[in-house]
Amino acid sequence: MRVSQIVGKRTIDLNVDIGEGFPHDAELLRFASSANVCCGVHAGSRDLTLSTIELCRKHRVRLGIHPGYPDRPTMGRAPMQAGQERPYLKSLFEQVTWFLENERPDYLKPHGAFYNDTAVVLPHDWKTQRKRAPTTSEYESGGVYLSQFPGLQSLLMLLRIHKLPLMGLEKTAHKAVADRARQPFIREGFADRQYRRDGTLMPRSEPGAVLVDPGQVREQVLQLASNVDSICLHGDTPDCLPFAELVYRTLLDGGYGVGA
């Protein structure tokens, strides 16, 4: 990144999901300033994770850890079901522990369904709400209401134990979890995803959930830029490189710098 591109401008971070076994990781890092590296469970392998970390350090991008559910058939994108809590949450802790044994990341960003399952829209009175909450729980230090959501409590514990900032959706429990863990929060936006009115992402299964028109993507990037700290670039689609360049150029043309 040339200094002239960011000095005197508000900078927006571009983050990319990589290390999942797709072919364009190195090329995407020409545009990205942060990289969310797969832990080798929902996709990829541990060897690929280690080589991807080296690639990130070579390109001097900010490094994020990107743990996901141990569900390779859907690449970690299927929501957690009843009965899966224990093995799934155990896997998440193992992924993060192993990653940190090899490299210290700069932040944590949940992957796929782990991201969506924890992007819960909280009611205005959630801090005092107790309905349906367990009577006792080792996770209740995170709040009685939040203890109803296994994924949220695991995310909170990961942030607290490892003292990692969180990248996520601001209008959801992601912000509350980061605050309770007393860790910085990185507000994320998605250039090619349709949002619901409540600020969550429209499921990919719904028509129009993924934006493909360059004009729509460009417009959404400029709308997001003043409200987020980072914009996500996907690395698992055939047209990911032209998409990444579109987002990058849109920000520069809009008067923004690109950097973490």
TrEMBL record:
Domain of life: Bacteria
InterPro entries: Glyco_hydro/deAcase_b/a-brl, LamB/YcsF/PxpA-like
SUPFAM superfamilies assigned: Glycoside hydrolase/deacetylase
Xref: Pfam families: LamB_YcsF
Entry's Gene Ontology BP terms: carbohydrate metabolic process
Protein name: Lactam utilization protein LamB
Native source organism of the sequence: Fimbriimonas ginsengisoli Gsoil 348
